[in-house]
Amino acid sequence: MPRVASLYLPQLAIERLRRLERPRALPDAPALPLLPIDDDPGACSVPRGGGWRPGARWAQAESARAAIAEEAAALPLHQQPTMRELGRRSEAAEHPFKRAAATVAAPQPVLAAPVAHAVPLILVEAIGQRQVIAATCPAALALGLVPGMAITQARALVPDLDIRPADPGGDGAVLDGLTLHAVRYWTPTAAPSGADGLWLDLTGAAHLHGGEARFCARLVRFCRRFGYTARVAVAGTPGAAHALARYGRDAVTIVPTGGEAQAISALPPAALRLTPDAITAAQRFGFDRIADLLPLPRGPLARRLGLASVTRLDAALGRVAEPIVPVVPEETPVAKRRLLEPIGTAEAIEQVIADLLADMMLLLQARGRGVRTLVLLLDRIDGSEQRLAIGTARATRDAAHLARLFHLRIARIDPGDGIETMRIAATRTDPLGATAVAGDLTGEAAVPAVATLVDQIAGRVGEAALFTAAPVESDVPERAVRRTPPLAAPTGWPAWRRPVRLLSRPEPLIGVLALLPDAPPRRFTWRGQVHAVVAGDGPERIHGEWWRRDGEVWAVRDYFRVEDEAGARFWLFRRGDGVDATTGDLSWYLHGLFG
Amino acid sequence: MTTYVELQVTSHFSFLRGASSPDELFAAAALQGHAALGIVDRGSVAGLVRAWEAQKATGVRMIAGARVDLDDGRALLLYPTDKPAWSRLTRLLTLGKARAGKGGCTLGWSDVVAWQEGLVAILLPGEADAVTAAQLAELSTTFGMRGYCGLAFRRRPDDALRLHDLAALAGEAGIRAVALGDILYHAPEARLLQDVVTAIREKCTVDTLGYRRERHADRHLKSPAEMERRFAAFPDAIAATAAIARACTFDLGELSYQYPHERVVEGLTAQGALEQLTETAAARMFPDGPPQAYLDQIAHELKLIGELGYAPYFLTVNSIVAESRRRGILCQGRGSAANSCVCFVLGITSIDPIKHELLFERFVSGERREPPDIDVDFEHERREEIIQWIYDTYGRNHAALTAVVTRYRARGAVREVGKALGLPEDLTKALAGLVWGWSQEGVGEKQVAQLNLNMNDRRLRLALELSRQLIGVPRHLSQHPGGFVLTHDRLDDLVPIEPAAMVDRQVIEWDKDDIDALKFMKVDVLGLGMLGCMNRAFNLLEEAKGLRVGMADLQDDDPDVYAMIQKADTLGTFQIESRAQMSMLPRMKPARFYDLVIEVAIVRPGPIQGDMVHPISAAARGARNPTIRARTEGRAGEDARRAAVPGTGDEGGDRGRRVHRGEADQLRRAMATFKFTGGVSQFYDKLVEGMVPARLSPRLRRADVQADRGLRLLRFPGEPRRQLRQDRLCQLLDEACHHPDVFCAALLNAQPMGFYAPAQIVRDAREHGVEVRPVCVNASRWDCTLEPTRGRWLAVRLGLRQVRGLANAHGERSSRRAGSRRSIRWRKCGGARAYPAPPSSGSPRPMSFHTLGEDRRQGAVEA
Q1: Which residue in A has a C-alpha nearest to residue B831's C-alpha?
Q2: Would strands B6-9 and B497-499 be described as parallel, antiparallel, or unpaired?
Q3: Residue in B544, B701, B691 with CA at minimum distance from that of residue B612
């Protein structure tokens, strides 16, 4: 018989924010009381007035000690002081940490310590054009702010409000983390339910936690430790558990199998996860409790509330199965070799890497993935760890290629006295299916794989040094190109001819002879050499990108393509359009060279 | 002497493409010495009338044309050579617009071929390749000598080469090349605005615009000498521009408007028919012969109408009004037509101009020579009937609504420019919130300082500056609420017609100012919710109380009514129901109809902003300030108007006289048209100057200047609106005073309208002692009805129309079966969604199935 626990975190979003903002540092320890200054420092080097003094007890007179022993012996056995109090040093002192933990302010309550929040906090989300409340803190709820209320109305009701945007992604991440934890440590089948809860399939797993009641208590405590309010319900069906966790009376509800119908009958129909339309319809027909739905004929009920609502009801009562789709944690593929004897030579390490890679490739093949990043971890016999990472430009399962990449960096490994364990982990993988080997059957020439070359070059010169150029939609030549990863194939190059080589800084020209306003120059001097122009085309008028900075608002460059008598072609520009002085000072520059 | 004529000028009527108004373009052209400009907007001639007006102002000739982008990617400039060719162009555009729906124009080459006669076509070629060669060959076979190949510098690489190749291709095809400027804006500075409107059009920011920006540079207007220098290598292309300009002799002034012929009386001219109609109508109105004053006035008016040839217009309006009478749709003429005795006897208005001493010259004057303007209000729910009747009677090719050019106003401009410049939305919203909607100045630095924003931020500065430039730029054409243009010949021979966003409506491309400029006739068929309400009230009165009342049986001097008004007990009465009006009423204590006119006239944004309300209301209560008193005495309405706005009437206020009479009329128009042509601000200085010599105290003058500042906002209700107000008001007040039950039922049935929700109307009726009964399945009809009671008033039974979620069809079906005792089953037609909306929070219970003796939830589940 299935047993399902539903965990509900009613204040998930708010409490997540509170947790993020909780004070990081421990609160300051209370200041020690100032001790009175001893008038006679010679008597004892340790200040008096409280606290422990060395030799205090055994420094007392022998008679007094005997009197104390007598008194102690007269007491009933259970009231006799311990040997330690009587000053016998043969008995071990108390555990050193026990005491310390008690006196130093305990750090643990800080996590869940209720911080006094002066301003009610609400989270807002945008629904269409409206800004509505997504979640409210209890203080805001008490002021009458409810989720779904328009933000303007909330502001009008409570002027002093802390309003933050809701972050469903962040809340989801918390829930996902919790689900993964549940799958790893509590039960094999767990899944998020809604945006603020979890389903845990406890079937056959409850006894591992000491029964359902203890599991629920632990779960609530676990959540409280992290600052989350939790409500848990256990029932025979996910629907009933879900309903009871959200609408039940107690924080922990456990319903015996078969008791679902009775348990949920007092809850409102909204507990059945109905659509908003169905909830409105239920209200209109006066169905205030689930009990009102139970005796009704199915046909009219389905027509009024929709078939989905009836299915929900049946699922909650166990008439229809509602399986939980479990979350499966993804493990990082790791291959590991323990070595019989510590190794230290490059050849031996390379051999082990090859073995590890072979293991790893099998693992990845089974998952249909290829390597993007591999981390090699080497444990030395002195306990320290060496780490070596490689990346590839494309997902690959080519062990030889990866071995080559490691080979390039093997010199960086410091084996020390020897390496005893080697592990390899694929920290980033991409899907990679089976690849057809081109050319074998069809006779076509295989496309040379640039990716491996790229990886190898990147291994030598660093990834940042490799790129390819992509066009940017800008008329200004300096901004028309950007760098992209080396394997990208950018498109959208403009049809107009651009120089093969663009100077990173335009070089000023002197001795330029040109007619205004729009004729190409007749001659110019560049790097001390005079060029006589025989042909020219232009101007190509390029306006500054006025939205970027003030200097470009009216700036104009007139570009000319010119050829000198030696046949060399240049890309020149003149600042200014030749008519209006505000567009530029008519100085000439060389910006590029054609091949 | 230069010969070059610029033939490719795009104005901002190519919406969100061009960046300059025709005025700016023509002013720039005049400065640069252009003899003519060819205006070509994309698939539209919307800007041509504005350009034509600019031609009159600057003397630069406007060559009318249009650019059509064909579905095969070809772009052509089409210029009509004469009036028939213009008609063909408009027919062609109408065809494209009908095909593309609102805002578009889809045409193919075959359409152009079909309508090519008399049109000069300039092909805008792409690269000089085989495609262009083929297009040139087609152009040559279709247009022959009227086909040209456009050459324009793009300021991009290989420009000269491309033009050379194109000229060679054109030569091979036997087509002349023609030089073009491809103008998008009048001055280089407007490039920024052009980028912004492109970003608005593409719905992105300027940064992400990329190559969607206009990539060809140098798009401002250049002088003819400069163009000739650039095209020095193509002297024939320069000559061709002049040749085209010579060939295209068409001028918009040639569009002669013809009134539609009304076949009222066979064998009579329109004037004769009108005279005869007036005579019989007058005889009917005054069974024992019309008094001499009326006869004189009618004769005077008919003479003037005859001189100006407006008789067909009167006949048209008369037939529309007669048709609506025949259908039992209440209607009421308004506008200055009410000053006409002819309109009065024909029944177009029910205001007696003799009794109210209204000036006919205000309506039609020989001096102004502009078409008369009669606006007719109809019940808003049945106006569509009349509109469709007009379409059917005059034909869809002869009748269309005028357009309204929707322009950017200060708020929208800030919002859109802010968006285009990537300012965050909350910031643009805050900026837009600061500015007054009709402000010409846009958001200023002072306002920004209020927001604590840093004016040194250049994006913010740019946004404010550009938004100031964007104010007044047209955004799109929309339809006028009811301005009809009717013609005798086909309307699409005069102007392109495009389908409106509403089904069965069509709109021409010109707005009402353009229509005025071309002296077309326009009839305003407007909807007025109050008329529908009154019609209902009349019917209810007749049904329930057996009283037969019509619009003509109005009294405007019932002391009970004024007592009620003075108590500000005016909920639901048109014009004086707003809270502002209600708060003024006890202070003004209106006791005559003109008091109400003043009241309505001054409680409006303009006078309030001009700080004129309190002086006038003080004067009304007998204040001693002689200046103001003088203005409010005598014909109170007139003078209140003058006091608030100097020089508005064409007869001139005491200071307005210093403004030239013709100008005063222009000012009145600029104010009335209520839009952003900057028409008012140019009179502003004149008005202030004119006021200076007037012996007014500085304090008062300041007040007047403030009043002027409110000018643009002010649509002052003078005589034109008076009769409207009179009718509605008196009738309504009368009704509200003497028949609160009928009043309440009629108001509820006419919802939604006015200021108040049904709940408030119901509460008000209760306060007047009327019993309001809840909706009942068996007793309620669709509309609210009256039921007998023992009390003084009849009880109002709320109708099924008050039930939310119940569609009219369901209600109709249910009321058809009215009388028969319904079982709960009928509710099936409403389904589970029929949910009662309690008309008031008080006693009208939610759904009333109580007559069936069933619990409502039980019923709902069973149904």
Answers
A1: A304
A2: unpaired
A3: B701
Peptide bond connecting A517 to the previous residue in cis, omega within 30 degrees of 0: yes
Between chains, do A549 and B458 touch, taking CB under 8 Å as contact? yes
Chain A residue closest to B422 (CA)? A547
Give the pLDDT band (50/70/90) at residue B132: very high
Closest alpha carbon within chain A to B862: A300
Helix segments in B395-441, DSSP class H = 410-420, 425-434
Q: Between chains, do B217 and A286 touch, taking CB under 8 Å as contact?
A: no
Residue in the block written with tokens 């209140």: B640
pLDDT band at B768 (very low <50, low <70, confident <90, very high): confident
**SS3 assignment, position A187:** coil
Residues in B touching A580 (Cβ below 8 Å): 188
Strand segments (E) across A347-489: 369-380, 385-396, 419-431, 468-471, 481-484
The predicted pLDDT at position B52 comes to 92
How far is CA A93 from each of CA A53, A55, B420, rounded to the nearest angstrom?
A: 15, 15, 77
Which pLDDT band, with edges at 50, 70 and 90, does B614 fall under?
A: low
In chain A, residues with a C-beta closer than 8 Å to the C-beta of B420 are none
Are A577 and A558 in contact, with CB atoms under 8 Å apart?
yes
Sequence-separated (6 or more) residues with CB below 8 Å from residue A135: A11, A12, A13, A14, A122, A123, A147, A166
A540 touches chain B (CB under 8 A): yes
List C-alpha distances in Å: B437 to B200, B338, B453: 20, 32, 21
| pTM over the 0.80 mark | no
CA distances from A187 to A12, A165, A223, A364 (A): 22, 34, 16, 27
Residues 379-438 of B with CB under 8 A from A: 421
Report the C-alpha gap between B544 and B561 in whole angstroms. Answer: 22
User: Which of residues 553 through 582 in chain A touch B, CB cutoff 8 A?
Assistant: 553, 559, 561, 580
Residue B827 is encoded by which pair of tokens?
Answer: 């509710």
Q: How far apart are CA A475 and CA A470, in angstroms?
A: 14
- Rounded to an integer, what distance in angstroms lies between the CA atom of residue A210 and that of residue A206? 7
CA A313 to chain centre: 37
Decide: B777 and B836 in contact? Cβ < 8 Å: no
Q: Quick check: A551 and A575 in contact, CB under 8 A?
A: no
SS (H, E, C) B587-620: HHCCCCHHHHHHHHHHCCHHHHHCCCHHHHHHHH
Query: Are B290 and B282 spatial neighbours (Cβ–Cβ below 8 Å)?
Result: yes
Query: pLDDT per residue over B417-433, tens digit each?
Result: 999 998 888 888 888 88
Residues facing residue B795 across a β-bridge: B787
* A-B C-beta contacts closer than 8 Å: 58
- Single-letter code of the amino acid located at B560: D
Which residues of chain B neighbour A472 with C-beta distances below 8 Å? 210
pLDDT at B830 over 90: no
As a residue count, chain B comes to 863
Q: How buried is residue A95: exposed, middle or buried, by Cβ count under 10 Å (0-12/13-18/19+)?
A: exposed
CB contact under 8 A, A474 and B210: yes
**B215 and A475: CB-CB below 8 Å?**
yes
Residues of A in contact with B230 (CB under 8 A): 518
B130 vs chain A: nearest CA distance in angstroms? 18
Query: Is A541 in CB contact (< 8 Å) with chain B?
Result: yes
Q: Does B155 touch chain A (CB under 8 A)?
A: yes
Sequence-distant (≥ 6) Cβ neighbours of residue A165 within 8 angstroms:
A123, A124, A125
Task: Please indicate whether, in this complex, the C-beta atoms of A547 and B206 are within 8 angstroms of each other.
Answer: yes
Could you say which residues from 796 to 855 on chain B have a Cβ atom under 8 Å away from some Cβ of chain A?
Answer: 832, 835
